[in-house]
Design a protein that fits this description.
Helix content is 35%, strand content 18%. It is α+β, with helices and mostly antiparallel strands.
Amino acid sequence: MQDLKDWCAQNNITEVECLVADMAGIPRGKILPTEKFLKGLEEDSHRLPESVFIQTVTGDFPDADIVDPVDIDVVLRPDPSSVRPVPWYEEPTAQIICDSLYIDGSDVGLASRQVLKRVLSLYEARGWKPVVAPELEFFLVKVNADPDYPLEPPIGRSGRPETGRQAFGIDAVNEFDPLFEDVYDYCDAQMIDIDTLNHESGAAQFEINFRHGDAIELADQVFLFKRTVRQTATRHNVYATFMAKPMEREPGSSMHIHQSILDMETGRNIFTNEDGSDSNMLRHFIGGLQKYMPATLAFAAPNVNSYRRFTYYEAPINTHWGYDNRTCGLRVPSSPPEARRVENRLAGADVNPYLALAATLVAGYLGLVEECPADEPHKESVYNLPRNLPQHLDDALKNLEACEPVREALGDRFVRAAIAVKNEEYRVYRTVISSWEREHLLLNV
């Protein structure tokens, strides 16, 4: 408490944003004058209605008996380690990510940050600590005021949009140098520990790599990074989008998740034996991902648009694995033994980062405790092998509903809420008449 007071005073903070992530990963919360924020800390009086955690991406609510009918308040408990400035405001403003608790002090199981903490507690009980490193892709596009109009690449410093593929193109990144200079400055001010920036294969598509670390800290950073990039792009008169498949003829955007597990007592990577060879635990972790990712895909591919990404030839289509094989949904990169890790390539960029990390870690955890066998690593392309992942959101939700181990690990009430929210979004989506239908059916059928 005193540290937060001192930090606000030292940085001349006049307002504080108390943030939580809803089911879609959208920042929600309250903006308070600093004095009122600090007083609320003393009285534990920062509150939000519980229903905020079951709001759909369209702003609606599912017709399901999930939350208390009177819509009780939950307490927002700011995490002091997450306080950061909001660098794009002229007025000195802070943002702080909150945990969500009931009045009796128990976790709100519907809150995505608490869901990830629940999964991490399973690891902790076994003496393990996950280490993760996300890689996040996104597109810059022209400002688009008409949602019926297809997105287009923006104009760069040359005065022309990209018309061809510029994978790893240096000059293609330099087209947007002023924007990315601001992104790096803003991330530095917020202690968002980003590493490499490179141009991906899509027109004005980019990837940012995060340094490896604690799962909660990295989820917080991705949560704030998305907001930072969107705000920065708007200031430069373009949009940044983390949609999984924003443009018809361009590749999709992913969030690859590198993950390893440390023994908390020794600090040793449990995926590696003392002689540097692969451990059985590496195989069990991969086996868990192979067995349970089809049931948790609704968190790695959470929107109807997410499944369009899997139609592009560079996206994974199954849960096969291989060493340094980018055609596989699960990849073990080349690395020193102490850095041996599994890259889960299934998640899209449109995820709630807390839930995407919870999904992959809970699948790996179940693999470890059940000692799930993994199939043999693939050395050739697996794109010609059968798909074994859900092809639509409703199929993924059915898989989730039917998987008792995942429901138990994530919390049955949370899973019921997630299914209800996503079913409501899918119901609304099905009422939309698309441009394809108007183009091909209007005068032909």
